[in-house]
Amino acid sequence: MKTTEDKLLDDTAIIVSDGCCVQLGTTPALDDVTFRINKGKKVAVVGPNGGGKSTLFNAIAGLVPIVDGSLQINGMNPKDAKGTISYVPQRDLINRNFPLSVKQVVEMGLINKSSLNLFSRKKINSKIKEALENVGLAEKINENINNLSGGQFQRVLIARGLAQDADILLLDEAFSAVDVGAQEDIMSLISDINLDGKTILVATHDINNLEEKFDEVLCLNRHCCAYGDPSEVLTKDVIEEMYGSHFEMFKTHTPESHMKNND
């Protein structure tokens, strides 16, 4: 039975997109995208390559302008809400061959915080340690990032995001370039983070078993094809609308017959 606090979380919209349009150069990247995400939800953002997943995350993070419609984070313009958002992009700019330690990478999450100059070195170190403990890598704090596996490096990037104490965590393709075991570890980690009341959006290509992993799914192909409970909205028509001529590769997929991918 839900507590009063749970109900308040469910009824509180933290991200509201109303006809949001984003243009990259002369190309429409998002067109009339409308959805409403409540606080504390774990949301999968799915769709084809070029469907606008990364663009949407960039818009939420205030990195690209809205040309029409509106997008609000906690009732604010995304640029004014940056302190409440932590973004782990798909293509991180960190060169893993550069001699950086895990600690240094996580500390990068604190560099842009206006309050950083108020932190003592002891408090900064405490935040870094706590973030690494949350992702299960406290013992790797002094390790060179070049020595980490793909899954471990992804967890370091998540720790960097957690160090910012943001209300919203955006993970763009968190499961790419890691093996199945690492994907499961990261998904378990995301579930644990979600218990802390954070709102988490994960862009992913995998549409299998989403109802077991996420509260809601946002189906995106430049426009919002559907949004809601994965077991209800991932219909044949919605999947075809997302993937178009590629739909044949998903022809056996139905909400009732999801099969785990053991490859």
Produce a short descriptive summary:
This protein has nine helices and nine strands.
Topology:
Blueprint: H1 4-10, E1 13-24, E2 27-38, E3 42-46, H2 53-60, E4 68-73, E5 85-88, H3 102-111, H4 121-134, H5 150-162, E6 168-172, H6 180-194, E7 199-204, H7 210-213, E8 216-220, E9 224-228, H8 230-233, H9 236-243
Parallel strand pairs: 3-7, 3-8, 5-6, 6-7
Antiparallel strand pairs: 1-2, 1-4, 8-9
Helix pairs in contact: 3-4, 3-5, 4-5, 5-6
Task: Name some characteristics of this structure.
263 residues; alpha/beta; Rossmann fold; 6-stranded mixed sheet; 3-stranded antiparallel sheet; 9 helices; 9 strands; 32% helix; disordered N terminus; disordered C terminus
Could you explain how this protein is built, in words?
The protein has helices at residues 4-10, 53-60, 102-111, 121-134, 150-162, 180-194, 210-213, 230-233, 236-243; strands at 13-24, 27-38, 42-46, 68-73, 85-88, 168-172, 199-204, 216-220, 224-228. By secondary structure, the protein is an alpha/beta fold. The chain has a domain at 4-95 and 168-250: P-loop containing nucleotide triphosphate hydrolases (Rossmann fold), CATH 3.40.50. The protein is globular, with a radius of gyration of 19 Å.
- What's the main sheet like? 6 strands, mixed
Radius of gyration: 19 Å
Q: What is the CATH fold-level name of the domain at 4-95 and 168-250?
A: Rossmann fold
Number of helices: 9
Helix content: 25-40%
Tell me the strand percentage band.
15-25%
Biggest sheet strand order reads 5-6-7-3-8-9
| Poorly predicted spans | 1-10, 246-263
Average the pLDDT over all residues and give the rounded result: 82
Q: What's the name of the CATH homologous superfamily of the domain at 4-95 and 168-250?
A: P-loop containing nucleotide triphosphate hydrolases
CATH architecture of the domain at 4-95 and 168-250: 3-Layer(aba) Sandwich
CATH class of the domain at 4-95 and 168-250: Alpha Beta
Q: What is the number of strand segments? A: 9
Terminus-to-terminus distance? 37 Å
| Outline type | globular
